[in-house]
Amino acid sequence: MLKFLGAKKKFLSLATSAILGGAIWLGTPAITEANAAVNIIGIFVQGAAIKNQVNQEIKYFNETNEGRQKLYQTFRKERGVDESYEYNSRLDAIMTNLTNGVAKVDKTINDRPYMYFVAADDTLNAACGMGHVMFVNRGLFKSLSTEDEIAAVIGHEMGHGQSNHAAKSVDKQINKQITAGLLNVALGSDVLTSAVTAIALNHTDAHKDKKFETQADLLSIDYLMNTTYNPGATAAVMQKFVEMSIGAERSGLDVLFNPSDHPDSERRRDACAKKLTKLSGNHVTIKDGVVSINKKTFLTPAATSSMSSAERSYFVMGNLVRAYHNKQDKYDATVENGTVMLGNQAIITPVAGDEDAQTIADRLNALK
Ligand SMILES: [Zn+2]
Q: What are the angstrom distances between the C-alpha of 335 and each of 278, 292, 314?
């Protein structure tokens, strides 16, 4: 890799100095315009040369086994690794389920399976870098009370991965540095390599792009729909972020999902809800924690010790979405062992503070 870049660099330096040298040679006040034009060409050629090198670097980390392995090892060293059996076995199980779910909508995952680890970090964070190299902080397992929500966050990361967001983000930042004149061929290929590596390791950058974020959220729902996890979990996590950022400004959240301002988490939650409504064939909607069926109020679930009423409402919504999506609405709602069912789909298991299961089932039959 370096050898290849070295050779390329020498050639490009010669080409560049030929043009810039020409400019100096021409440098008299009488031909200022020509001089400027040559300089612009020089800058352009320089930029193209660096771009070319950078593209090779990105390809190396993003696509080659050697590059991906290098990134994986560097991530592990940088973040620290949590080797605990509990978190690692849970992550393995979630990755297996999600990988199967992703494969149902995006076969390319089979060409580049994810490389992942549990990072020894208690903050609620996860990230997917280039080459499908991913880490999940143990803080995610500590902060989220359900496996569905953990899967939703990891699904979001895989959404970034499948959409190649990390490479696009690195490319964008390198372009900015080239335009600003911070990177040029004269720096040499080693310096360029470390510049790209440094940006590549700044894995959280993909989370800063609002368009990327929403795209990854919506993909997460697609993936969850193809597993047994609750597809409402992505919206539920967003609701949790809204509550966390209102309750404790940025506490423990910092960079993940960019939840520093809660209007942004609200916007993303609502985008998820909109997608869920669509997946239900427009039968299920949600507003201010109230779940409605066919535009009529269905219920507002009670809060539990680990979840607010609003957060839980997205789980109820997710179950209804799956029921409608799988055409279970043609069957009656029933109560089985304390759980309200619609066909074969569990909808809600009432807890203290909820209405009783039969009342909910009766209403569901009236509304569906
Ligand atoms: Zn993200």
A: 27, 20, 20
